[in-house]
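User: Predict Glycine--tRNA ligase's structure from this.
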Amino acid sequence: MAQEDVFKKIVSHCKEYGFVFPSSEIYDGLGAVYDYGQLGVELKNNIKKYWWDSMTLLHENVVGIDSAIFMHPTIWKASGHVDAFNDPLIDNKDSKKRYRADVLIEEYLARIDEKIDKEVEKAARRFGESFDETMFRQTNPRVLENQKRRDEVHARFAKALNDGNLEELRQIIVDCEIACPISGTRNWTEVRQFNLMFATEMGSTADGAMKVYLRPETAQGIFVNFLNVQKTGRMKIPFGIAQIGKAFRNEIVARQFIFRMREFEQMEMQFFVAPGTELQWFEYWKQERLKWHKALGFGDENYQYHDHDKLAHYANAATDIEFRMPFGFKEVEGIHSRTDFDLSQHEKYSGKKMQYFDPELNTSYVPYVVETSIGVDRMFLSVISSAYCEEQLEGGETRVVLKIPAALAPVKLAVLPLVKKDGLPEKATEIMNALKFSFACQYDEKDSIGRRYRRQDAIGTPYCVTIDHQTLADNTVTVRDRDTMEQKRVTIDEIEKEISLKTDIKQLLKKLA
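Assistant:
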């Protein structure tokens, strides 16, 4: 099945089973804004807990805050967002659709990479165990030709980004004959910059209102609270401040479901270090964050680093962790060495010192910062995309199953009486009431047991407990595993321990320790 079709099925599945709904749907929706349904919010909260606990429990020098969405407007002047928070946009004159120029070029480069990979895969099948991939990539004419073309375009692209050369970005699109996906034509406008911040007004009267912004990132709330946290927590450098919160960007090119939205949620940690040590800590957090992703078990081959072609004005190193989505490798997390830019800017604009006195060096300095920033919504999409599976069973039946890691699953256990009579529902309710204090449970007595299993498979419930007539005789139940569909009998007293051991988020955290 084509990846595009798989993605459509994932989007449909999310709506059908209560994970994600289009926002304001009864009013025909609002572009690039989504609501999380009853199961989606549980999965989202579990992802956030996994991140939060991995930061604050596993690192004694990382603490959390929750800063306000509204902040003084000068903060955004100091951070550079008022003057430089822009996307390079280009319009197709025939389709009237607008695109990010850099994304069009990145997708063109990705298509060349796919061509090269297909050549390698074909050769690997042809030569079998004797295949030498390195030698093939260095000698095959088609691979070399595609690689040369890719390297030439990439070099132009990186230089244009770093120079802020919008004319060259357009020229690359023209030279590479990149067409609009809608109209199929190459009738492009000039490339223009567009600021992404939402502005509003704060105040009781129109005359006295102050222009403020919905925050486009959560990091600045951490920076302006740096000294508050450091002094009240008696924190010593190096230390980090973590935060989960909403951010808002007026994305013109918002697409690919919840991958790029106008209202989204971030999990960010700013790690404050002594000047000169930032690049070592940058490498440390690169490794730590990749380990966090890989612990979910979605396959190491589905992750890669992507170093930035253009560094932000505040950074001296930056890389993305990319995950293989149904539409290709895409960024889910960024790790940036932000130098001392943010704290120095806030010191300059506020007139307040943002320095740390280092007792070991007996001197004061503005700390450098290493940032890890992950989009909750993109992480959610990567989990759902990896978990979605269609399986052919014996007898020709197909089941749709979400193989969500048990610790993240919205519902950990389904309690199912075999039939709606003979005291089985009452016994099942008794078990449900005992277990619901330990983890998220769902009770279901409607339809045949097979159909109920399928419903639980479709929402990713890792375990089902079935209460049958034998339960009334010997106090044992059947526990069914979602992934293997194997069943085993355990006593009622063993259920909580059995399920807790396999679904507790501690099991994920122990992989990281």
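The chain has a mean pLDDT of 92.
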